[in-house]
Structures are given as C-alpha cells and as structure tokens.
Design brief:
With 84 residues, this protein is mostly helical. Helix content is 80%, strand content 0%. The protein has a domain at 39-84. The model has no long low-confidence stretch (mean pLDDT 84).
Length: 84
C-alpha cells in the first residue's frame, strides 16, 4: 500500500507542476526559410509530362469511343427502317 501512496503523491506533484514555456516558432520559421525548394523540382517536371501523356491518351480514347458508337447508331437506324 505504501507504494501506491508514494505513486499517488508523485502523480499529484506532477499534476501541480506547469510545463516550461518554450517558444520554437522562430527556429521553425528559420528552418523553413533555409530549406527553400528548388526552382524546378524534377518530380514536378515528370508529373507535367505524365499529365500531357494522359491528356493525349484521353483525346485518342474519346475519338475511338465515338468511332465505336457510330456503327451502333447506323445499325439502329437501319433497324428502324425495317420495323416501319
């Protein structure tokens, strides 16, 4: 039981203490300013190339999709003539 009282006393003293006031804002701002990124990040250039390639693929896929849709529309038109 004495260990529990001792531990409870330590906990009470720890709760009564206030943490030290530490201001790290100036150090953080200085570190951020020191670590400025490069003007042209290599990953940004690669990402831009990937976006351009994806845009070309999407444009080509849209053309192919409309080419696939046209025969179906023509087939349905001919069926419409037959059914009338």
């Amino acid at each position: 039981m004495t260990h529990e009282k001792w531990l409870a006393g330590l906990a009470a003293r720890a709760r009564a203490e206030s943490p030290p006031r530490v201001d790290v804002a100036a150090a953080v701002v200085a570190e951020v300013r020191r670590q400025r990124p490069e003007q042209y990040d290599p990953m940004a250039i690669i990402a831009g190339g990937s976006v351009a390639a994806a845009a070309i693929v999407v444009a080509y896929a849209a053309q192919m999709w409309s080419a696939v849709q046209d025969p179906i529309v023509a087939l349905m038109a001919s069926m419409n003539v037959v059914l009338q």
